[in-house]
Design brief:
7 strands; 7-stranded mixed β-sheet; alpha/beta; binds S-adenosylmethionine
């Protein structure tokens, strides 16, 4: 597992301290939240291979595994990856989940492999602008034809498209905190 120090270098210092505080000093609010079933409905009914970028303690990764998906779950912080692994074992889902600890923007992903990618307030919202293009390009490369990328973010659809010119927003669903963007390469 990569060290927390390596994780710190992958983000802006203020973002790193936000996560360190949330994960080390208390339980992060999103750890207790229910999975985003409604936002994901329509995209998860036919299980395949999914990637959860910035999985945190794993609420959506575990939900997908429960639905029969084979899930690769990625997060920067070793503590939170261990927490997600523990939850997977407790729920008997360990065979459906693979965990990777490290910066999403430098992961090596197999080409045309995933049917679904999700990023819920994760790297797409937190990355430095200079890293976003690389991140988007590798998501596109690793998405199977006909697959979908679902990003929940504070960014607007046009901000995201500007930062990630290889992606096209096909649907946008607003909620009180942010918006769900459904993307495809294009
Ligand atoms: C707000 S939390 C949300 C966690 C989870 N997606 C959820 O909705 O419950 C965002 C997570 O993204 C992770 N993250 C942010 N930037 C990342 C990056 N560049 N690579 C990997 N993980 C990242 C953080 O460590 C954090 O656990």
């Amino acid at each position: 597992m990569r060290s927390a120090w390596a994780a710190a270098r992958a983000l802006e210092p203020s973002t790193h301290w936000f996560y360190a505080k949330n994960y080390l000093l208390s339980e992060a609010a999103w750890a207790r939240a229910a999975p985003d079933q409604e936002a994901l409905s329509g995209y998860v009914e036919r299980p395949g291979r999914a990637l959860d970028m910035g999985c945190g303690p794993g609420r959506n990764a575990l939900h997908l595994a429960q639905l029969g998906w084979q899930v690769q779950a990625v997060d920067l912080y070793p503590w939170v990856v261990r927490q997600a692994q523990r939850r997977a074992r407790q729920q008997g889902l360990q065979d459906r989940l693979t965990f990777t600890c490290g910066p999403a923007q430098t992961l090596r992903l197999p080409p045309a492999y995933f049917d679904l990618m999700i990023d819920v307030l994760g790297p797409a919202s937190d990355l430095r602008p200079a890293d976003i293009g690389r991140y988007a390009a590798q998501l596109c490369r690793s998405l199977k034809a006909g697959g979908t990328i679902v990003i929940y973010t504070y960014l607007s659809a046009s901000e995201l498209e500007q930062k990630q010119s290889s992606l096209r927003v096909t649907r946008c669903r607003e909620d009180p905190l942010g918006r769900w963007l459904y993307l495809q390469p294009g």
